[in-house]
Amino acid sequence: MKIGFIGVGNMAKSIIAGWLAKKTFRPEDILVHSAHRNNYEKYAKETGVTACDSNTVLAQEADIILLAVKPFVLASIIDEISDVMNENKLIISMASGVSLAEIESQFKDKKIPIIRIMPNVNVEINEGMTAFVRNSSVTDIAYEQAKSLFDSLGRTLEIPEKDFSIFVALAGSSPAYIYYFIDAMARSGVKYGLTKKQATEISAQAVLGSAQKVLATTKSPMDMVDDVCSPGGTTIAGLLAMEEAGFMTAVVKGIDATVLKDQATH
Fold first, then answer.
1. 181 and 256 assigned to the same domain
2. Of 20, 146, 192, 205, which shows the fewest CB atoms inside 10 Å?
3. What's the average model confidence in pLDDT over 35-42?
4. 17-36, pLDDT tens digit by residue?
């Protein structure tokens, strides 16, 4: 099986890196093409993936075509590959804000199987989170096959298309928020005499372990907060100071802004 990437930006490279690490695909079975020849040809030489001369050639040779492009160029890409597409090929789109119905309409009368996904950058280390939704032309076999590819990169979740904007906020954009939180903690460590490297390692490991513990238990995160907060202790003092500074409100406002921005692209 061959999979082709139209668009070779950071997310595409993260997905490819995850699959190569897991040996899900042989490098030569991953095809790439983009508008930036220097980028994709250099990347192909560095990784061993196959560079294609055009989007049409890629779509002809690939069994699965992953559209990893900006929403505003998606229509022109589909126009370019439409003639070589058929019901035996699968389209996977991760163009934010472009619905299945919009993609289907661009293929006109062809019944092309289409899956819409939204991954996050942690797929690169096989700890990603990817949302899935499919159109009626995708068979159960094709769907499970595609889903298994992304299961190898972390966790997957089938959600209604109307919920993709909140998924973007909670999974797609949130790694940046979490990196920011880790950096803020690390800078506090530097304030009290640790090196930035030491403080970052401590903070990142604390976030990693805490996330793993949330996923491993049936307790709610707030119950776990209570478990750590001893009466009159240091943790509750720190939490109350954070909340006084607007910690939870800031997080919710950040999610709201992300959702609104994603919805504005529809």
1. yes
2. 192
3. 92
4. 999 999 999 999 999 999 98
Order of strands across the sheet with 50-51? 50-51, 30-33, 3-6, 64-67, 90-93, 114-118, 128-134, 154-158
CATH number at residue 217: 1.10.3730.10
Which residues does the annotation place in the binding site?
6-11, 34, 55, 68-71
Q: Which residue positions form the known binding site for NADP(+)?
A: 6-11, 34, 68-71
Kindly state the average pLDDT of the residues 36-51. Answer: 95
Domain that holds residue 124: 3-164
Binding-site residues for NADPH: 55
**Closest of 130, 135, 132 to residue 106, by C-alpha:** 135
- Decide the pairing of beta strands 128-134 and 114-118: antiparallel
Task: Evaluate if pTM is beyond 0.85.
Answer: yes
Q: At CB < 8 A and 24+ separation, what contacts does 230-236 make?
A: none
Q: Give the closest residue to 122 by CA, choosing from 172, 157, 168.
A: 172
Task: Using alpha carbons, list the distances in angstroms from residue 81 to 34, 77, 96, 98, 254.
Answer: 13, 6, 20, 17, 38
What are the distances in angstroms from CA 33 to CA 9, 43, 52, 60, 111? 11, 10, 6, 13, 24
